UniProtKB/TrEMBL annotation, chain A:
InterPro entries in the cross-refs: NirD, Rieske-like_NirD, Rieske_2Fe-2S_sf
Organism: Parahaliea maris
SUPFAM superfamilies with a match to the protein in the record: ISP domain
Listed transmembrane segments: none
Annotated protein name in UniProt: Nitrite reductase small subunit NirD
TrEMBL record, chain B:
Every NADH-rubredoxin oxidoreductase C-terminal domain range: 318-384
Cofactor annotation: [4Fe-4S] cluster; [2Fe-2S] cluster; FAD; siroheme
DNA-binding is among the record's keywords: no
UniProt: siroheme binding residues: C681
Residues spanning the signal sequence: none
Family membership: Belongs to the nitrite and sulfite reductase 4Fe-4S domain family.
SUPFAM superfamilies: FAD/NAD(P)-binding domain, Nitrite and sulphite reductase 4Fe-4S domain-like, Nitrite/Sulfite reductase N-terminal domain-like
All residue ranges annotated as the Nitrite/sulphite reductase 4Fe-4S domain in the record: 628-766
Name of the protein described by the UniProt record: Nitrite reductase large subunit
E.C. numbers: 1.7.1.15
Length: 116, 841
């Protein structure tokens, strides 16, 4: 595996800016990234595209998170489709995906990898 | 061969059922129906519900279109006056002639009015048709007291109607007891006690001599024992007489005391003429119930379709009723007249319950039963009776409220031939067949078999049979709210309340599994709010809310929000109106008057919400909860303050109600309205709870709904004073909050409430569950801890953090693009967006 290049990552906010078991939105390299904070999972943080491909508005960070049949998901606040937080896949509509961003917690810093 | 002409005279319940059955058998006959009443057949059995708010049109069994679609010719409002048997023709009052090959008489019966002098007064009425109902209502308007003559089943039903119309009600009976046909003396006495306790005066052994003009009231009835009774109106309900005139005049055989004589094929003395329903006399007997009439109709239809064996064998006359809210049941030989029979009687005068069973001499078979005040055992007893099931060794155990070990006749124990629904002749076998052919729920079985769509008396039994059979097939009737909690909302509410659970985490740790989802999280957040009323944005609750609750505003299609400040009762000062205009102008918001008498400002971005609300709060506005499953609006009409017809201050009451219940979180949204008089300009009858002013106070209507499936609210209580009105609403709302399913409006809740409106009255007015004090206390707690969610939010920096568009930037969402239309903004369409974004680059 390729070593993570330090300058690919951008610190977007601190843990304090996140909302427990819910989402916020960050602007990363001109793109809207929805960041979800589930501290009782292994990864704790998840990052997906903020645009709802079905409702066609930038709202995913405002959805409710939870789990369905073992998958950690967020529900679109517009029409309630669920998206897997790890893979971005839509549970209701095959072939529909949200972009997935690399994200990590470094102490209290929340880092997101900037595309290419 | 030309098509056979079938002519049906009379379009009542039985006449209609005949046509429906024959059409269903696809015989290719030419069918013509002639009805005297101006409208197609309707449900006479439920006529009284019109007094408690049901529309006459809801009772229709058929419309003109129904018949058209069936290819049946139908004429209404023109009765047949003559049968010319030799020519096989009938003639109507309007002079029209119709020929027939087979004639079916379904002319029903008429109410018997005893030949008493003065009974032709225009304030003396009868009760059988929708038109009669209109007259009763009209006459009741300027009456304070009403008398029903006749203490039988129909008379008592009519008594209830008068009581619902707000009259002081009296029942006058010739015999020594009430419902003498169906009840024995003990049952009849208990019924009387219960009815009198409800404020209805009962006078038995009274023979009316004449009716004269009264002094203090419109009429006065004089009895043979020299007593008299003043009243403003009289409704005769002293039995029915078959309408056999046509048959009589065309020399068909009729009974000595009336009724067209039929054989077991339902044929009259002319083999081309049938008679069915209440006009027919079979085995020396008139069957005054709808189920036997339906059987006759089916027998004739089947014969005409070529099935020679079809025959009428007489019918069971057992009945279960709720008269004036009192449960009454009568089965078979209620009086124990069968030779050698034995009776067991149970009577509890304190609880006002009377039960009697009549068995064969050897105690093995049930011959009859009487139940007053408690009909719980009715279904079981009826099955023993109808199916001749051998009784347990100690038959009395069936009616004695023993310590819980009553031998229950479960659905599984019923034979396949057991009749579950006698109105539509549905046996257990039919139900199983329906399930075999793919029905998987109670609703589907109902529409497939029609069971429980007649008098409704079999609803509980049907439900048992269906659920029992489904679970025998391994179908789990799963009522869990979602995969995280194996409970219904009602059960979760109970668990949270009893365990004093205050957070979602504790709830899922204690009673569920996993992390929850967008179904259970908002549902539990709502339960927490109803119970403990914390701010919805407190940390443990914030992630549970739907976006609308999170941002205290309604999300629109483009991700912006709308703002709906509370405008209680729709009343607003010019100053406040100006503030709304100024704020809308400053932020460029689209402005619209809503259907709920308030003003909606659209197109606010998430990050603008707090600033906008600060301005609104400063000007004295509060949140309108348009985003929450909570009280929305209480609409009002202008009422007595300005309107020339108003009889109470509807605006004042609406504002009071709105302020009292604002902030109450509930299973679904709640809407209300208050009208200042019966003209009902506020449309209160379409609301979850509606209030209409009367001369004496307020009428309360419950469980109405507009929206997808409109439902008229039911009249719940009349002429309430302010205090009682609020007390009932408190209890009603909290009872609903406690027991409804997730996202179940009050209308659907009511439609699923076992026992319906009567049960609700028992719980709320009579406190039958003994919980009213608790419901009121709980409401008082919610009212007392009200806070405007927006006022609290704008004063709490921690809560405001959530409203940032981006955690790391002050930029705005570039996906939100507006264009102008009719002088205001609207979200751009996708094509417009592409164009606008391209041109701005
Ligand atoms: C704004 C308004 C339309 C308008 O411009 O007039 C409106 C707008 C919405 N209605 Fe409504 N309803 C509005 C009056 C009504 C009315 C009329 C009334 O209240 O007098 C009804 C029928 C009456 C009733 O509810 O019984 C009504 C029946 C519905 C329904 C169907 C409810 C049902 O039981 O069938 C929904 C869907 C739902 O709640 O699940 C709904 C849902 C909605 C939602 C919340 C849909 C949504 O999720 O986006 C809309 C959001 C409003 C917003 O963004 O502010 N709206 N809606 C009205 C707000 C009134 C207010 O001041 O609060
Ligand atoms: C208030 C009330 C409550 C009741 N409750 C119950 C109950 O709980 N359970 C129960 O089983 N039964 C109940 N019944 C009785 C039930 O309604 C009747 O058994 C049933 O309606 C009989 O149907 P039918 O078609 O024989 O008569 P109807 O329904 O009376 O129909 C006869 C029709 O024929 C028409 N007609 C008569 N003569 C002519 C003519 N010459 N030409 C054309 N048309 C003519 C009449 O106008 C009428 O529309 C109740 C009745 C009433 C009034
Ligand atoms: S409901 Fe009656 S009182 Fe109210 S505005 Fe209409 S007419 Fe006037
Ligand atoms: S018995 Fe009347 S509806 Fe079933």
């Amino acid at each position: 595996m390729e070593a993570v290049k330090q300058d690919d990552w951008q610190t977007v906010c601190t843990r304090d800016d996140l909302v427990l078991n819910s989402g916020v939105c960050a602007l990363v390299g001109g793109e809207q990234v929805a960041i979800f904070y589930l501290p009782d999972t292994d990864r704790q943080v998840f990052a997906l595209g903020n645009r709802d491909p079905i409702g066609k508005a930038n709202v995913m960070s405002r959805g409710i998170v939870g789990d369905l049949q073992g998958q950690v998901v967020v529900a679109s606040p517009l029409y309630k489709q669920h998206f897997n937080l790890e893979t971005g896949a839509c549970l209701e509509e095959e072939g529909v995906f949200l972009p997935v961003y690399d994200i990590q917690l470094d102490g209290d810093a929340v880092n997101v990898k900037v595309a290419g | 061969m030309s098509t056979r002409k079938i002519l049906v005279v009379g379009n009542g319940m039985v006449g209609h059922h005949f046509v429906e059955s024959l059409v269903g058998l696809k015989t290719a006959d030419d069918i013509t129906v002639i009805g005297e009443e101006p409208r197609p057949a309707y449900d006479r059995v439920h006529l009284s519900e019109v007094f408690s708010g049901r529309e006459p049109s809801d009772l229709a069994l058929a419309t003109r279109e129904t018949y058209e679609n069936w290819g049946v010719t139908a004429h209404f409002g023109d009765p047949v006056v003559r049968i010319e048997r030799a020519r096989r023709e009938v003639v109507t009052k309007g002079g029209r002639r119709f020929s027939y090959d087979k004639l079916v008489l379904a002319t029903g019966s008429f109410p018997f009015v005893p030949p008493v002098k003065g009974a032709d007064n225009k304030r003396c009425l009868v009760y059988r048709t929708i038109d009669d109902l209109g007259q009763i209502k009209a006459t009741a308007k300027d009456s304070t007291r009403g008398v029903v003559v006749g203490g039988g089943l129909l008379g008592l039903e009519c008594g209830n109607a008068l009581r619902n119309l707000g009259l002081e009600t009296h029942v006058v009976e010739f015999a020594p007891g009430l419902m003498g046909v169906q009840l024995d003396e003990g049952g009849s006495n208990m019924l009387r006690r219960k009815i009198e306790a409800l404020g209805v005066r009962v006078h038995t052994s009274k023979n009316t001599q004449q009716i004269v003009e009264g002094e203090s009231s419109a009429l006065s009835m004089e009895f043979s024992d020299d007593t008299a009774l003043d009243t403003d109106m009289i409704v005769f309900s002293a039995g029915i007489r078959p309408r056999d005139q046509l048959a009589r005049e065309s020399e068909l055989a009729v009974g000595e005391r009336g009724g067209i004589v039929i054989d077991y094929k339902c044929k009259t003395s002319d083999s081309d003429i049938f008679a069915i329903g209440e006009c027919a006399l079979f085995g020396g007997r008139i069957y005054g119930l709808v189920a036997p009439g339906y059987r006759m109709a089916e027998v004739v239809a089947n014969q005409l379709a070529g099935e020679q064996e079809a025959s009428f064998q007489g019918a069971d006359m057992s009945t279960k009723l709720k008269l004036l809210g009192v449960d009454v049941g009568s089965i078979g030989d209620a009086h124990g007249r069968t030779e050698g029979s034995i009776s067991y009687v149970f009577s509890d005068e304190r609880a006002e319950v009377y039960k009697r069973i009549v068995t064969s001499g050897d105690g093995k078979l049930l011959l009859g039963a009487v139940l007053v005040g408690d009909c719980e055992d009715y279904d079981t007893l009826l099955q023993y009776f109808l199916n001749e099931i051998e009784l347990p060794a100690e038959p009395e155990s069936l009616i004695v409220p023993a310590a819980g070990d009553k031998p229950l006749l479960g659905a599984a124990a019923l034979p396949m031939t057991a009749t579950v629904c006698s109105c539509h002749n549905v046996t257990k076998g039919c139900i199983i067949e329906a399930l075999d052919s793919g029905c998987c729920s109670l609703g589907e079985v109902k529409s497939e078999t029609k069971a429980s769509t007649g008098c409704g008396g079999c609803a509980a039994m049907l439900k048992n049979v269906v659920e029992d059979e489904l679970s025998a097939r391994g179908v789990v009737v799963d009522k869990s709210i979602c995969e995280h909690f194996p409970y219904t909302r009602q059960e979760l509410f109970h668990l949270a309340k009893v365990g004093e659970v205050k957070t979602f985490q504790d709830m899922i740790d204690g009673h569920g599994k996993g992390r929850g989802c967008d179904i259970c999280k908002p549902a539990i957040a709502s339960i927490m709010a109803s119970l403990w009323n914390d701010h919805v944005l407190e940390l443990p609750h914030v992630g549970l809310q739907d976006t609308n609750d999170t941002f205290l505003a309604n999300m629109q299609k483009d991700g912006t929000y709308s703002i709906v400040p509370r405008i209680a009762g729709g009343e607003i000062t010019p100053e406040k109106l100006i503030v709304l205009g100024e704020v809308a102008k400053e932020y460029g918001l689209y402005t619209k008057i809503t259907g709920g008498q308030r003003i909606d400002l659209f197109g606010a971005r998430q990050n603008q919400l707090p600033e906008i609300w600060r301005k609104l709060v400063d000007a004295g506005f509060e949140t309108g909860h348009a985003y929450g499953k909570a009280l929305r609006t209480v609409k009002s009409c202008v009422g007595s303050t300005w309107c020339r017809y108003g009889v109470q201050d509807s605006v004042g009451m609406a504002i009071f109600i709105e302020n009292r219940y604002k902030g109450l979180r509930s299973p679904h949204k709640l809407k209300s309205a208050v009208s200042g008089c019966t003209r009902e300009c506020a449309e209160a009858q379409s609301k979850d709870f509606g209030v209409i002013a009367t001369e004496n106070g307020w009428n309360l209507y419950l469980c109405g709904n507009g929206g997808m499936k409109p439902r008229h609210a039911d009249l719940f209580a009349t002429d309430l004073d302010d205090e009682t009105l609020i007390k009932y609403i408190d209890r009603f709302l909290m009872f609903y909050v406690r027991t409804a399913d997730r996202l179940q409006r009050t209308s659907v809740w009511m439609d699923n409430l076992e026992g319906g409106l009567d049960y609700l009255r028992e719980v709320i007015i009579e406190d039958s569950l003994g919980i009213c004090a608790e419901l009121e206390a709980q409401m008082a707690a919610v009212v007392g801890t009200y806070q405007c969610e927006w006022t609290t939010t704008i004063n709490d920096p921690e809560k405001l953090k959530r409203f940032r568009q981006f955690v790391n930037s002050d930029e705005e969402d570039s996906g939100v693009v507006f264009v102008q239309e009719r002088g205001q903004i609207r979200p751009a369409q996708p094509e417009e967006k592409i164009r606008l974004v391209a041109s701005s680059k």
